[in-house]
Specification:
single chain; alpha/beta; 10 strands
């Protein structure tokens, strides 16, 4: 906010100082000019750092440079002329600022101010350009007339201030406010005018949107991950959203100590930068989590941050927010990392709009760079559209499983998870799946006449390849071992790869996932009589290995086979 205020009024401060002190005598004018020139230099340097310098800045920097030179190098006589014609010099500067860019075929000087009020998508319309061109001509004429008036009587107050200001307020300001709409009505059809107004209204809504990017790369702005995030942000900003990228390496975030106080008491005892980052997350409409792939997963910086978000998983408070997951690898694992971050966003309550992942070995060198950056921009546009439309994304199987798991965990251990339990009570989620269970039961009953359920655990496991969904398993290469106890003892394993699934009896070495289960429990889950997540939480079957693979079961195995 301070940066925006500074950028809009920075030039006016030295101009006001100089204009005021110029009327207090030659020595006061000299001091005022020196002070104004120093302030102008400071502003000019900072403006170069923050953003593009305007013609307005260049014009007045030149004016103060001429005044400073005349004061210190050419004696009092020339300086007195400069001071006597202070207002005329100011209006001459404004006249040149208005007309010179037009004569050189450059952007009108009003662009600098008009762009501050509208996002880039509006700048590109021919109507925006035409309106600014005409407004610049009008203001240039007003400045020229003001210059001629003040030149006629340079020390007469009405001629130097009152008459020119009356022209600027009575004609310039009113014209600037009224002309754009009048021009659009005359030059656009009724339908086109309505579309343009809708575009302006939409962009006004977008101006309040905030997108936060959280980058876990230790390479900071030099990394490929940051570049990919920047492309998503660039499109979001072009469409009118406010954007901010936080680099985790620049923050002081301690490891999670596993004390559980955030779950029982509601707050983490550590006093570090995590609190400020959480505030930014809560203040954002869209959240981008991005990390390069290190050893098949996210970086240490990202993992430390995510571990500190454990309470957000227990009390998912990102409902109504939208997320994007991004990852880059040197050739392997980028999709899995993006999927992991996508799952985290979903578990925290956000609706995941999309994932962007690619391969980049050295800075800026991506495989299929053009296509990847185009995808990043599309994702940025889709994120803004989802927020603006308050888009409703269907709940995935993974999200449902996690919700049920967390609900049962919090309920059964409510004495410890006091803060969690209170939150779930307030949200009305402790019984939130009763309607869903009812719907599932109705669906189950309606399908019993057409769907054959397994009658034995052996039949249930050996029949899993027939319920396999190849499209949902793209890129998946895994082995799942079943060890069945109870009435139907036995061992089977599933092999998944190349979008195929096979089942064989026996054991396989080094399975990715091992499920040890009583036969009646797995049969009940397969028949839909038992809730798999609830059974796992209650310890009715045990799992060893890749929990993420278990969470994908609802996606890669579906009644009826391929979808």
């Amino acid at each position: 906010m301070l940066k925006k205020i500074f950028y809009k009024i920075g030039t006016f401060v030295p101009l006001l100082i100089f204009s005021t002190m110029a009327h207090l005598g030659q020595e006061a004018a000299r001091i005022g000019l020196d002070l104004a020139f120093v302030l102008m230099i400071i502003y000019f340097v900072l403006a170069r750092v923050y953003s593009k310098i305007s013609y307005f800045d260049i014009g007045f920097f030149s004016l103060f440079l001429i005044g400073f030179t005349s004061s210190h190098l050419f004696g009092d006589r020339l300086f007195k002329v400069f001071i006597d014609y202070t207002q005329a010099n100011i209006y001459l500067t404004l006249t040149l600022v208005a007309f010179i860019p037009l004569l050189l075929g450059k952007e009108p000087f009003t662009y600098h101010f008009a762009k501050e009020g509208e996002p880039e998508i509006v700048w590109q319309t021919p109507q925006f350009k035409a309106i600014n061109f005409i407004i610049t001509l009008v203001w240039g004429t007003i400045f020229l007339v003001s210059f001629l008036i003040s030149l006629a009587k340079p020390i007469n107050l009405p001629f130097t201030i009152l008459f020119p200001v009356a022209l600027q307020l009575g004609i310039g300001l009113i014209f600037t406010l009224k002309f754009p709409k009048s021009y659009l009505k005359r030059n656009l059809s009724g339908e086109a005018f309505s579309a343009y107004e809708s575009l302006l209204k939409l962009n006004k809504r977008r101006k309040g949107m905030k997108i936060l990017g959280i980058v876990g790369s230790p390479h900071r702005k030099m990394g490929n991950t940051y570049q990919l995030v920047s492309y998503v942000m660039e499109e979001a900003k072009r469409l009118g959203a406010e954007t901010e990228i936080v680099i985790l390496s620049d923050l002081k975030i301690g490891y999670c100590q596993g004390c559980g106080r955030c779950l029982s008491e509601g707050e983490c005892p550590q006093d570090d930068d995590m609190k400020g980052l959480v505030e930014k997350i809560f203040g954002a409409d869209g959240i981008i989590m991005a990390s390069p792939t290190y050893i098949f997963s996210v970086t240490a910086q990202m993992k430390t941050f995510l571990d500190r978000c454990v309470w957000l998983g227990h009390r998912p408070q990102l409902q109504g927010k939208y997320g994007v997951a991004i990852s880059v690898s040197a050739g392997y694992g980028e999709e899995e990392t993006a999927n992991y971050l996508s799952g985290v966003l979903s578990a925290l309550g956000a609706s995941v709009v999309g994932r962007v992942y690619g391969i980049g070995v050295t800075p800026g060198e991506f495989s299929d760079k053009e296509s990847l950056f185009a995808q990043a921009k599309r994702t940025g546009a889709n994120l803004i559209a989802a927020i603006g439309e308050k888009r409703d994304y269907p709940t995935t199987g993974n999200k449902t499983i996690f919700h049920k798991f967390m609900r049962d965990l919090v309920s059964s251990h409510h004495k410890f998870f006091r803060a969690d339990y209170k939150y779930w009570q307030e949200m009305g989620w402790l019984d939130s799946d009763s309607a869903e269970k009812s719907t599932e039961e109705e669906s189950l009953n309606s399908e019993t006449n057409t769907q054959t359920f397994p009658k034995t655990c052996k039949e249930a496991i050996e029949g899993m390849p027939t319920a396999f969904v190849p499209k949902a398993s793209r890129g998946l290469d895994a082995a799942i071992q079943f060890i069945v106890t109870g009435a139907e003892q036995g061992e089977w394993y599933l092999s998944i790869g190349d979008e195929r699934c096979t089942c064989q009896a026996g054991r396989i070495e080094n399975p990715d996932l091992t499920i040890t289960t009583p036969s009646d429990i797995w049969l009940g889950i397969s028949q839909g009589r038992l809730d798999g997540a609830a059974c796992f939480m209650q310890g009715k079957y045990k799992v060893k290995g890749d929990m993420g693979l278990l969470m994908k079961f609802n996606e890669i195995f579906a009644a009826g086979g391929e979808r």
